[in-house]
UniProtKB/TrEMBL annotation:
Pfam families: Band_7. InterPro entries: Band_7 (IPR001107), Band_7/SPFH_dom_sf (IPR036013). Residues 19-199 form the Band domain. It comes from Antribacter soli. It comes from the Bacteria. This is SPFH domain-containing protein.
């Protein structure tokens, strides 16, 4: 915002970087531009400040479609003052002296808003009146933007005022609240139906997956039961085979033991037979020997054999009869031996 410093008979103006100042002295332009600083006489000078930056003007108005439906159009117009001197002459941007001397602010901005807003509303109302509600809602934004852009850019009044429209943006074309709700209902119902269908499909898919999982679990259980049955059968076959093998081994062992016992019995019988034959031969030899010996020798041998089987004897009592018989036997044997020796010697001689 510019600053005016007051001194006696003369004032000092200090401008800003966003405002274009126009200094008129006796109807002639003495100073103009952005960021100006100058001295002026208050009794012969008029100062105007025109915005040097781009201006944004929001507009909101109602229009009626061809099928008698009320719609609201929301737009935004961007403009600038291409000729600030011309704009200061056509519109009220004065800052010194203030209007009426009562300190009232300049109304140039409000005038521009009224001019641009009325022109935009007139173009939009004429365009919307040729469209049905459905067309206005479907293609209204683009068509209104194109119409406003072309009309505002070529408008002679705006050009004569020094205003240049830079762009138009149409934000929305909306019907009344109850109509909008009614229009939204079919779409909402369709979306809800799609959501329900997606929910049902998801549930059906979940049920199908659960069924697949249950079938897989049942198939796994059946497979496990089948394998368990095969395992039990295999274990029974293994046990039967083990029993058969054990029985066969026991039979082989029994047959081996029987054959071994039979062989042992045959060997023992043969050995006993040999021993019996040897003993018989021995007995026969002994009998043959005993047949040639006398009674006394047999008695002595019998006593020797009996002595080996009798218990120990602490003392022996010899009777005279026994001693006499023994001595007689020994004396007779000695005599016989001597006679035999003498007869042999004579025969040799």
């Amino acid at each position: 915002m510019a600053t005016v410093k007051r001194y006696p008979l003369i004032h000092r103006f200090l401008g800003s970087a966003s405002e274009y100042v126009v200094h008129l002295n006796r109807g002639e332009v003495r100073h103009q531009g952005v960021g100006q600083a100058f001295w002026f006489r208050p009794d012969t000078s008029v100062l105007s400040e025109v915005p040097a930056t781009d201006q944004e003007l929001p507009v909101l108005f109602h229009a009626v479609t061809r099928d008698q439906q009320d719609v609201t159009v929301q737009a935004n117009v961007t403009y600038r003052f291409a000729d600030p001197v011309l704009a200061s002459q056509r519109l009220d941007f004065g800052i010194f002296p203030l209007r009426g001397g009562r300190g009232e602010a300049a109304s140039g901005r409000q005038q521009v808003g009224a001019i641009v807003g009325q022109l935009a509303q007139s173009v939009t109302v004429d365009l919307v009146a040729t469209l049905d509600l459905a067309e206005a809602l479907e293609a209204g934004v683009g068509r209104v933007r194109a119409a406003l852009g072309a009309t505002l850019a070529e408008d002679a009044r705006l050009a004569a005022t020094g205003i240049e429209v830079l762009g138009v943006r149409v934000l929305a074309v909306r019907p009344e609240a109850d109509v909008e709700k009614a229009l939204r209902t079919p779409v909402r119902e369709r979306l809800q139906a799609e959501a329900d269908r997606a929910t049902y499909e998801r549930r059906a898919l979940a049920v199908e997956r659960e069924r697949t999982i249950s079938e897989n679990e049942l198939a796994s259980q059946i497979e496990l039961a089948t394998r368990r049955e095969q395992l039990v059968a295999q274990e029974g076959a293994n046990k039967r085979r083990e029993a058969e093998e054990a029985a066969a081994a026991a039979l082989v062992a029994t047959r081996s033991n029987a054959e071994r016992r039979e062989i042992d019995s045959a060997a023992r019988a043969a050995e006993l037979e040999r021993i019996g034959a040897a003993e018989a031969t021995k007995e026969a030899a002994l009998m043959a020997v005993y047949a040639n010996v006398g009674r006394d020798v047999l008695l002595a041998l019998a006593m020797r054999d009996a002595a080996t089987n009798l218990p120990s004897v602490g003392s022996v009592t010899l009777t005279p009869d026994l001693v006499t018989g023994l001595l007689g036997s020994l004396t007779g044997r000695a005599a016989g031996t001597t006679t035999g020796a003498a007869g042999g010697g004579a025969a040799g001689a």
